[in-house]
Specification:
52% strand; single chain; mainly beta; 293 residues; globular
Length: 293
């Protein structure tokens, strides 16, 4: 039985829903380092991906997430949408995200980013335009408030950054680094922060539907480092101090790719998770691949 959270717990559940949907919408299957140079078939981006994830809170399914992406030789686009309902609809949250851009030397460069969200009482949108990894156009509706404890944003905080979706693509792109050795700067329209992946350990996952051997997956610790635009309060310090967020990256047999298998976000009020239900991938080299849990 899930106990109804108090006011602080309700805020935590809403933040957990936001984190799961934002992370899930951002994550898409991308190539793992194979020793090949960007641009070779082995290191190519998947041409198409459709994924469905189950969202859970304290072990109970509370929603689903759908992700679709396409990539050509020089361009990419990704869209995702999901919804969460907790305590028989007492707390609801839904979100969708879209991004498009170009691929230069295996690196994504966004051109347009959109994020829409709704909860029980209100909704909002974020629109951003990019040029040369600089956020040149930013529109947030409703406009962000300015509490006295907000760390001010400066023009420099929108330079050399990526939107949240393209940033996660960078965190999982193929290069010479280990899968859990990554850092990327993000501007989401309100905040400038960094997401850092560091290695924790490896784990064995059962074979996907269709049989085959068990898979050795990489378990990464994901940490949030706020820089500007955030509130310098206890909640932000708690999120930044959380060293227990895990992303499990699963290799796809017969390819040079990893997919996010699961995301786990423990908090004082409960644990949120995102787990694979089905992923369909189309690649230039390996054709169509389907994974079902």
């Amino acid at each position: 039985m899930v106990r109804a959270p108090n006011a602080g717990g309700a805020r935590a559940v809403r933040c957990l829903a936001l984190a799961l949907l934002a992370v899930g919408i951002a994550l898409s299957p991308l190539p793992v380092s194979s020793g090949e140079k960007p641009g070779t078939p082995e290191a190519a981006w998947p041409t198409a991906v459709h994924a469905r994830y189950r969202l859970r809170y304290n072990g109970i399914t509370v929603g689903h997430l759908e992700i679709s992406s396409t990539a050509a030789a020089k361009t990419y686009s990704l869209s995702g949408s999901g919804a969460v309902s907790v305590l028989f609809g007492a707390i609801t949250w839904s979100g969708s995200s879209r991004v498009s851009g170009t691929i230069d030397g295996g690196t994504p460069a966004p051109s347009a980013y959109a994020f829409d969200w709704h909860n029980n009482n209100k909704g909002g949108t974020i629109r951003m335009g990019f040029k040369d990894r600089i956020a040149t156009q930013v529109a947030v509706t409703p406009p962000a408030g300015a509490p006295p404890d907000v760390v001010p944003l400066a023009p420099a905080h929108t330079v050399g950054v990526l939107d949240p979706v393209s940033a996660i693509m960078m965190l999982t792109k193929a290069d010479s680094r280990a899968p859990c050795d990554r850092r990327v700067g993000i501007f989401d329209g309100k905040q400038r922060y960094e997401i850092v992946l560091t290695p924790k350990h490896e784990t064995r996952l059962p074979p996907a539907s269709g049989g085959g051997p068990a898979t050795v997956a990489h378990v990464c610790r994901a940490t949030y480092e706020p820089i500007a635009g955030h509130r310098a309060n206890a909640a932000t310090r708690t999120y930044a101090a959380n060293r227990d967020v895990e992303v499990v990256m699963r290799p796809i047999p017969g390819t040079g790719m990893l997919i996010p298998h699961s995301v786990t976000i423990p908090t004082l009020w409960g644990t949120g998770s995102m787990v694979t239900e089905r992923i369909d991938i189309t690649t230039a080299g390996a054709g169509k691949i389907a994974l079902t849990e």
